[in-house]
Predict the 3D structure of the following.
Amino acid sequence: MDFAESLLGWKLEAKQRELLTGPNKRVILNCTRQWGKSWMAAVALLFHAIHQPESLSIVAGPTLRQSAELLRKVKDLSLRLGLASFRDGINRHSIILGNRSRIVALPGNSPDVIRGFSGVTMLVIDEAAMVSDAVYTAVRPMLTQKDGAIWLLSTPKDKDGFYYREFSNTHPPDHPYDQAPTKEDWRKVTVPATECPRFRPEHLEAEKAALGARLFAQEFLCQFVSVNEGLFDEQWFDDVFSTIPPLRIPSC
């Protein structure tokens, strides 16, 4: 994507190009740490704001600091293009472009604080695995009026929460998220560290030794794993009970 490469000043990796050039209506990015997902989202947000005048984009993260940091990247990119941007006069962490497109950063740790926006044309939830279900429930209706785009970006955490359910399509039949986009609607991009040319094998081995196999699988291999401190984890039980032969009850 020439737009992104000229802004960022680097040649996109294959997965980065795939993310930015494919369908972008509903995207789930499941990626390794330190891959550059915030920069990719910043490019997508700025591209959206430029090409959809008077649009409203919302950025949410686990904390205001994180969502504001993504917004700072958008502003940095806009300056590289020579675009003037200002705060919208209402929200402290916001930018508005000359075409009246706005991007607002909000904290994703309180569903009550994040409410109040409508007509959202793009929603980005950064570190989505760390954001609560209650916040996701609060922000999704913001997209209905304009049929807005939604991007969920994260390194996985565990097998719980809306990010895992959307990625794995494991909604219970009566769960409210069952009304969310179906498995076929989401475009899912997975980027483990082993597919990133910037990670050297020896560095990954060192991280695996430091973190342990389960945390390494989560942080660098994009796997949803149980990382609690219990004596036995879910996979251990699955492995054990899969080896037990079925119980035969003698007939009378």
Confidence is low (pLDDT under 50) at residues 178-184.
